[in-house]
């Protein structure tokens, strides 16, 4: 009976070792978020700053550092207030800072990396008026056409 138990334990141990070796190691380790920089950059970059949301991600510690009220909070998961944001499309600044507290320079980061607003121009208004026999379209470009009509061009 003892021989059967020893043989069963030995067989189970062999199958367990083979089973563990057959699984990829990536399955057990949680890697960086998909928006984090590529591996070559990870070695050089410790913190990523998100200027639009004003928070940091520590690549080495895999922590989010964000302002909550008047104090900075460190969390292993993305805070709820940022859950609906696509971080892959957000601005990301790779900071040249190796310490653990990048937020001590937050006032500088907010000014240095603030989002530049692009001036938007108002769209042209098109007014359509009905004439007795035809429709007349008047552009709001002060009578200056785009150069493709029968206007007062150069005379030959």
Q: Which percent range fits the helix content?
A: 10-25%
Q: Main sheet?
A: 5 strands, antiparallel
- Catalogue the unreliable spans: 25-29
Order of helices and strands: HHEEEEEHEE
The overall pLDDT, averaged over residues, is 73
**Strand percentage, roughly?**
15-25%
Structural Rg = 32 Å
Number of helices: 3
Number of strands: 7
Strand order of the largest sheet: 4-3-2-1-5
What is the end-to-end distance?
Answer: 115 Å
Shape: elongated
Structural class: alpha+beta
Task: Walk me through this protein's architecture.
The protein has a domain at 30-112. It has a 5-stranded antiparallel sheet, with no helix packed on it. It has a two-stranded antiparallel ribbon with strand order 6-7. The longest helix is centred in the N-terminal third of the chain and has 21 residues, at 2-22. It is elongated, with a radius of gyration of 32 Å. The protein contains 3 helices and 7 strands; from the N terminus they run ααβββββαββ. By secondary structure, the chain is of the alpha+beta class. Residues 137-156 are annotated as: Disordered. Residues 144-156 have a biased composition (Gly residues).
């Amino acid at each position: 009976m003892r021989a059967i138990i020893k043989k069963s334990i030995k067989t189970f141990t062999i199958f367990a070792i083979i089973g563990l070796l057959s699984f990829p190691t990536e399955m057990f380790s949680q890697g960086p978020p998909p928006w984090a920089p590529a591996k070559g950059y990870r070695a050089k970059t410790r913190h990523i700053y998100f200027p639009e949301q004003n928070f940091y991600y520590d690549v080495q510690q895999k922590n989010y550092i964000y302002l909550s009220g008047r104090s900075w909070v460190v969390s292993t998961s993305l805070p709820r207030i940022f859950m609906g944001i696509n971080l892959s499309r957000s601005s990301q600044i790779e900071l040249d800072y190796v310490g653990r507290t990048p937020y001590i320079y937050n006032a500088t980061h907010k000014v240095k990396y603030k989002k530049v607003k692009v001036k938007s121009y108002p769209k042209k208004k098109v007014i359509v008026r009905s004439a007795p026999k035809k429709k007349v379209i008047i552009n709001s470009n002060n009578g200056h056409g785009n150069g493709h009509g029968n206007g007062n061009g150069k005379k030959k």
